[in-house]
Amino acid sequence: MGFGRGKVILLGEHAVVHGYPAIAAGIERGVHADARIAERDLLRIAPWNLELEPDAKAEEPLQRAFAAILEPYRERPPIEVNATAELPAGAGLGCSAAIGVAVIDAIDDALGRPRSREAIGEAALVWERVFHGNPSGVDNTMSALGGVALFRRGEPLVPLTANKPLHLAIAHSGESASTKEMVASVRRQLEQDTDRVTQTFEGIETLVRNAKLAIEAGDLIALGQLLDLNHTLLSSLMLCTTRLDSMCQAAREAGALGAKMTGGGGGGSMFALAPKREEAERLCRVLGPNAFVAEVRA
Ligand code: MEV
């Protein structure tokens, strides 16, 4: 069996693509996969009834991504993988990375070639590259390792420790968005308006650094304020939609300590920070039927 977690970027998305730090958390919902030796290579993904063969030259990215994952396995028999996603796709919750991690984990298991979770996370970067062009690596890393951690491209992951879990209410806006397009839009803004966007990234880095301290000190009030500020800076990069803004505002009015969009933006998901689990459950009722609670432990 293989498993890849979904993830929530607490602070620092987009800036992380350009070498700034981000704080992310693995969540319990993710992707489960099972692999077995078969007559031909095949990947099925439920609940979308997808069935595909690997093909490095295919137009369908999933076929290219599956081929990229299989490529490094030397002298192996044909393999069939059945994956089941518990996360919505295009929702900013790391569904794509979680599929890559779960598929690799399941193949390793079926071939009796175990490796560390770190190595599985790294191996899943080839899958992510097919979809996102220039992924920072935060999604595949957090999908494999979980916990709450400070991630910076090219540097070892820094796990954070705190004595209290974080209670999040996570909700999908219902607007699906392409991370690749949103990353490309931020890159264009950086090229055209370098000073403004660099200052925004630096502002985000300051929020990330303070959030690390707030998480470690268990200061949820400060963390909530930092989330709100990060949402505003992401808005200035044109990553938030009216729907995401109004969901965050509704959560704040209902008592959330802070709320922000998470992931690629342009739609996708938001989350709100609650002081305790019952409060997160109450926020979910405000945010709508697809909202769910995630308890993340640093
Ligand atoms: C996507 O979950 C997070 C982004 O920062 C892209 C990336 O880190 O590769 C938007």
Low-confidence stretches: none
- What small molecules does the structure contain? (R)-mevalonate
Give the biggest sheet: 7 strands, mixed
Number of H- or I-type helical stretches: 10
How far the N terminus sits from the C terminus, by CA atoms, comes to: 26 Å
Strand elements, count: 11
Strand content: 15-25%
Order of helices and strands: EEEEHEHHHHEEEHHHHEEHE
- CA radius of gyration is 19 Å
| Rounded mean pLDDT score | 97
Helical coverage, percent range: 40-55%
Structural class, from helix and strand content? alpha+beta
Shape annotation: globular
Describe the structure.
- The chain contains ten helices and eleven strands.
- With 298 residues, it is of the alpha+beta class.
- The strands form two sheets. Strands 1, 2, 3, 4, 5, 6 and 7 form a seven-stranded mixed beta sheet that branches. A four-stranded antiparallel beta sheet has the order 9-10-8-11.
- α3 packs antiparallel against α5 (138-145) and α6 crosses α7.
- The longest helix is centred in the last third of the chain and has 24 residues, at 194-217.
- (R)-mevalonate (MEV) binds at residues 9, 13-14, 16-17, 92, 94, 132, 135-136, 138-139, 179, 183, 263-264.
Labels describing this entry:
globular; 43% helix; alpha+beta; binds (R)-mevalonate; 298 residues; four-stranded antiparallel β-sheet; 10 helices; seven-stranded mixed β-sheet
Question: How would you sum up this structure in a few lines?
Answer:
The chain is α+β, with helices and mostly antiparallel strands. It has helices spanning 61-70, 95-111, 117-123, 125-132, 138-145, 179-192, 194-217, 220-236, 242-253, 277-287, and strands spanning 2-11, 22-37, 42-46, 50-52, 79-85, 148-151, 158-159, 166-172, 258-262, 269-274, 292-296.
